Prior knowledge:
The chain has three helices and three strands, in the order E-H-H-E-E-H. By secondary structure, it is α+β, with helices and mostly antiparallel strands.
Amino acid sequence: MNELTTSEAVRAFQMHPATVLRLILTQRVTARKDGNGRWLIQRADLENWNAQRVRRTPGRQPSAVGVGAD
């Protein structure tokens, strides 16, 4: 399968639906609408994007070392 719907992309790549839409609207991935008005996204484009994305680790706070230390 070369194309995924937005809901398939959300499940397969564990991302928020708004992220998928943003990737489509900013043309970072190749997508087209089918006859029913659903977005179909190229799997290869999503795989490339997924390989390059930086994931944030939840719960980690920036270090305060050196701030206000006198």
